[in-house]
Amino acid sequence: MQGATVIVFAGQFRVDSFVEFVNHRAQRLQLDAVVETATPDCIEVAVSGQPALVDAFEMACSLGPIDCLVRDVWRKNASA
Amino acid sequence: METGWYPVALAEGLERGTSTGARLFGRELVVWRDSAGASHVWEDRCPHRGMRLSFGFVRDNHIVCLYHGWQYDTAAQCRYIPAHPDLAVPSTIRVATYPSIERLGIVWAYNELDSGAPQDIGFAERAPVTPVRSLYVDASAAKVFDALVLAECPSLKNAGGATQRSRTDALVSLKRGGDEILVAVQPLSDVEAALHIVIAGPPDVHSGDSQKRVSAWGEALRREIEGAARPTGEVHHGVAP
User: Fold this and answer.
1) B169: which of A61, A66, B16, B65 is 20 to 30 A away, CA to CA?
2) CA dist list (Å): B41 to B30, B47, B132, B231
3) Which residues of chain B does A53 touch, with a Cβ-Cβ cutoff of 8 Å?
C-alpha cells in the first residue's frame, strides 16, 4: 500500500479476533488498512489515511479486544 | 422483543438543550432535545470510548460527550473532535440511532437501530393532551397491560358510565364519559416497565386537580401491579379518588 504506515503489534493474539478488531476500527476511522502479517505473537498492519486518525487507530488497537494482549507497538518505515 | 413503536419519555419533561437516559428491552438509549426543539433517540454510547451520551450536554444542535468532548449533530454524525480541531471528521464516525417521533405528548422510538423507513405509528396526533407523569414499575410490561385491562378510568371532569378500554400497540386508552386518560407502556426489561400517563384534553382544563387525581391513580395502579407481581406480597386494590 503506497504511502502507508506499517504498525507492528507484538503480544499474544487470537488472530481472527484481532484482525476483526483491526478491520472494524479502520473502517470506523475511514482508513485503508491491510494486515500484512498475522501470527499469534505478531500482527503487522499497513494503514493509510489522515495522520491524526492513524494515531487514533494505533491507540485503539493497542488496547485491542478482550481476548488479546498487546505488549508492544512500533512503526516500521513507510512502504515505498 | 417485538419490533415497533415504544414510549421512552414524556415530551414535556424533555426540555430544549437537555438529555436523559432511557431503557428499552434492556438497551440503553439517550433521549435529547436540540435547541430547535426536535427530540432524538439514539444508542446511549459514544463511538469513541463507549461513554454514555446521556451523561453529556447539549450545545446548540450538537450533543457533546462528557468524556472527550466529541460533538454529534442532529443526524448523529460526529462533527468536531476537540483534540484534533482541524481534523476532517470521517462520515463513518456516527452514533447508532432509533427512529423517533412525538405523539400525544410522548416521545416514541422505533426499537430497531438504524432502521430505514419504519411502519407508521399506529395512532394519530389529536387535540392537546395534558401530561401527568411517568411511573416506574417493578413488573413486566405484560403484567402492566394485564392490570390496565381491568383498570377503571379515574373520575375527572365528565365521568359517566362504564370504563371503555382499548389498546393500540403500547398505548392504552381508558375512557369514561367525556374523560379519557392515555397510558403508554415502556418495557424497560423483562421485569421492569415504565408508564407514561397523559390526560386527553388541554392543560387549561385538566392541569391541577385532574393531574393530581390521575397521578394518585397511577400510584395506586403501581401498588396493585407490584403487589400482584410478588407471590406473597400485599395487594392493594384501592384507587384514589
Assistant:
1) B16
2) 6, 15, 22, 36
3) 87, 90
